[in-house]
Amino acid sequence: MASMSTASKCERCSTPLWKSVVRDSPILLCSCGFDPVDLKEILHESPDQIAKRVAMIRRYLKWAEKSRGSRDAFGFEGSPFFWDHTESSGNDRKPWWKPGAPAVSLLVRHTVASFQASCVDGELTRIARDISETKEFFIELPTSIASSMRSVSSAVASQFPEDAFSARERVLLGLEQHSGAATERARMPIVLLPAFTVTTRAFFDGRILSMKAQMIIREISEAICREDCEPERMYGLLVALERIVCRAYAEAVNISLTRVVSRSNPSPIGKLWSPAVIVRYKREKTFLRFLWMREKVNHENP
To answer: Which residue in 15, 21, 54, 127 is a FRET match for 111, CA 20 to 30 A apart?
Structure first.
């Protein structure tokens, strides 16, 4: 059997192969471009199999390019955990406002929305642009979201004792009147919680929301006011915005009311829901997948 010597130089230009190791490139790839490693031969596959694989990859890339044009994703940047769980289904089906620890660290919610042209107008674009550009996050909201927030505050507040709030506070929180109110004055933290209306416009101090919720609200608002955003897409983004705002608001209300009623802070280190959403558009329907991950944060600086 004839002996074979170990190659130490490039077959094309005779450059020592060890030089390829010190560069940021595949090992054995010479600076002249010659690569002694043939991936096709390493795979030991027939040309027909290789051709089928190439065709499949091309079909996938074509589908992916088309799919990206009909989808938006928000909240995933810097959170690789979310990408690993986009196919997950949450086991905890309790209402979002119900007290108690969740059964899982990730909640997944699905929503299908049908296009409503009356909700998409120049006012929505203006409000979205203002939200995306604001620095202090004292924001104007579409009136539909402000209305939903009132239902949120009443649902959260109803979990506290009936005599925990004054008559004025019950009005602000959207609760029914109760004769056994503990105090008649309205405490400032509660006064500042609801969105308030000036003529036909609704305003809200969004600084009570977690920083991650504020971040995704800005991202969605930026997408709404893009020049190429079509009405159907804009409506789907409005639905995403409403759900994100309302759930983040529910959490902020619960923390604030717990602090006011008990006259103490919640546990210094707790867990907040960090949001993300995938929005898919198909003609006049929008399919939304919301993901909420539990994260440890300080309630004083969420």
So the answer is: 127
Question: Tokens at residue 152, please?
Answer: 């949120």
Q: Which domain holds residue 271?
A: 74-298
On whether residue 45 sits in a domain, the answer given is no
User: Would residue 153 count as lying in a domain?
Assistant: yes
- Amino acid at position 24, single letter: D
15 found inside a domain: no
Residue-wise pLDDT for 165-188, tens only, equals 888 888 888 887 765 555 567 788
Q: Classify residue 122: in a domain, yes or no.
A: yes
Number of domains in the chain: 1
Strand segments (E) across the chain: 71-74, 106-114, 138-141, 196-198, 201-205, 269-282, 285-298
Indicate if the alpha-carbon torsion angle 183, 186, 187, 192 is positive or negative.
positive
* CA atoms of 290 and 240, how far apart (whole Å): 8
Provide CB contacts within 8 A for 222, sequence distance 6+: 128, 132
d(CA 283, CA 136): 37
- Closest C-alpha to 290, from 300, 275, 280, 302: 275
Dump pLDDT digits (tens) for 126-177: 999 999 988 888 899 988 898 889 899 899 988 888 788 888 888 888 887 7
Strand partners, 106: 293
The full DSSP string for 4-71 is -PPP-B-TTT--BGGGGTSSSS-TT--TTS-----HHHHHT--HHHHHHHHHHHHHHHHHHHHHHTTE
